Amino acid sequence: MNMTPDLKHALVTGATGFTGGQLARTLRANGHTVRALVRRVDAPAAQALEALGISLVEGDVADAAAVDRAVAGTSHVFHIAAVYRSANHPDAYYRAVNRDSVSHIIEAARRHGVDRIVHCSTCGVHGDVAEIPATETTAFNPGDIYQRSKLEGEMIAQQAIGEGVPISIVRPTGIYGPGDTRFLKLFKTIENRTFRMFGRGDIAYHMSYVDDLVRGFILCGTHPDAVGETFLIGSDSYTTLNGLVDEIADVLDVPPVRGHIPIAPLLAAATLCEIGCKPFGIDPPLHRRRVAFFTKARAFSIEKAQRMLGYTPQVGLREGLERTAAWYRAEGYLRPAKKSLAA
Ligand SMILES: NC(=O)c1ccc[n+]([C@@H]2O[C@H](COP(=O)([O-])OP(=O)(O)OC[C@H]3O[C@@H](n4cnc5c(N)ncnc54)[C@H](OP(=O)(O)O)[C@@H]3O)[C@@H](O)[C@H]2O)c1
Q: What integer pLDDT is reported at residue 342 of this predicted model?
């Protein structure tokens, strides 16, 4: 247990998701009282939280009354929920979930005298970074409605900071680790050798191992110097897409990926896919944000978090990828390791 006395009662939004779930479970394991705002209390992920002693409040982050019920009586609010993984929602939906929820959280926190809000934004507010590594003061350049709505949410938090509300803003880089399925397709296609590198693969890519990020969130919720500040949080080094793909191939014990395919046809296919799926309300299997994975440079300095908060990532890329692959295998998403087959 690693309890921080000031953190009396934490609310976590997005706790049925990957990152929020890991944060809520870690806080609980550290002995804290934890509450989760969930969309459905009978969802399996919500039930799993409740089984750990995390109390549930049912509601939507876009619903001010539900947020108020969830915030009442808590000392710290970690606002992690976002519409992120699914695509093709109307812009208004992104804004309701990723922007308006921030106002609801802040208003409720003011009413109930919450000690600290940690607001989860994204490194994506910087978009395609021209000069790497980007820092917290690098210009904003959001590239899609998800990133724009996250930036708009962050702006609301910034304004409240100016009015004296105790908020700390975290901009994570690409989050991975056991429990994540976003990088599963990459692992799977590298394993079955269907992965193709669109573009040259030499753009920068910056990962954030989930347990390290959770430590960052807790630091931002408890460190006195985090109040009113914004922090980029990620691993202590970044790589290139080619480097990431090579490392995953090595972890999976398959030959390295060779060859490159021009990006333009993939972008055209993603655009058509989005257009085709929209009238039917279907989540497109391929969309432009997926293509951005191959085209947008993402490399960030975490020096501010290291200097001001003592943030120290503990899991390097190799170890993080190995742990992630082990989880995918344990879940049956990937083939068993060759060594364990031989055993
Ligand atoms: N993953 C990354 O690489 C990455 C990188 C940078 C920043 N971020 C940010 O990190 C945070 C966590 O990302 P993640 O990948 O862990 O997300 P995730 O797994 O997709 O989880 C999203 C969570 O938000 C909840 N949620 C969505 N809409 C909601 C609503 N209207 N009301 C209440 N809850 C709602 C989901 O609930 P349900 O279970 O009901 O769907 C789920 O618990 C997000 O703020 C994201 O913007 C992510």
A: 55
Q: Answer whether the bond into residue 284 is a cis peptide, omega within 30°.
A: no
The list of the chain residues with pLDDT below 70 reads 1, 286, 339-343
Using DSSP, state whether 149 is helix, strand or coil: helix
> What CATH number corresponds to the domain at position 90?
3.40.50.720
Q: Running DSSP on this structure, what letter comes out for residue 124?
A: G
- The residue type found at 187 is F
**Residue 268 Cα distances to 54, 89, 147, 275, 286, angstroms:** 45, 20, 21, 11, 10
Give, using CA atoms, the residue closest to atom 9 of ligand 1: 122
Any atom of ligand 1 within 6 Å of the Cβ of 118: no
Residue-level pLDDT at 267: 77
- Asked whether 17 lines ligand 1 (CB < 6 A), one says yes
pLDDT at position 1 is: 64
Closest atom of ligand 1 to CA, residue 16:
43
**What's the domain count of the chain?**
1
> Is residue 292 included in any domain, yes or no?
no
Identify whether 241 is part of a domain. Answer: no
Q: How far is the centre of ligand 1, averaged over its atoms, from the C-alpha of 183 (Å)?
A: 15
Identify the domain containing residue 93 by its residue range: 9-180+207-235+300-315
Task: Please tell me the distance between residue 30's alpha carbon and the centre of ligand 1 in angstroms.
Answer: 22
Residue 101 lies in a domain: yes
242 is a domain residue = no
Range list of H helices, 179-254: 184-191, 210-222, 241-251
Which of 37, 39, 78, 119 is the pocket-test mutation for ligand 1 (most atoms within 8 Å of CB)?
Answer: 39
Give the CB-side neighbour count of residue 121, counting CA atoms within 13 A.
33
For 151-202, how does the pLDDT look when each residue is reduced to its tens digit (9 = 90+)? Answer: 999 999 999 999 999 999 999 999 999 999 999 999 999 999 999 898 899 9
Q: Is the CB of 14 under 6 A from ligand 1?
A: yes
Atom of ligand 1 nearest to the CA of 97: 31
Q: Are strands 174-176 and 207-209 parallel, antiparallel or unpaired?
A: parallel
The confidence score (pLDDT) of residue 259 equals 84
Q: Is the CB of 175 under 6 A from ligand 1?
A: yes
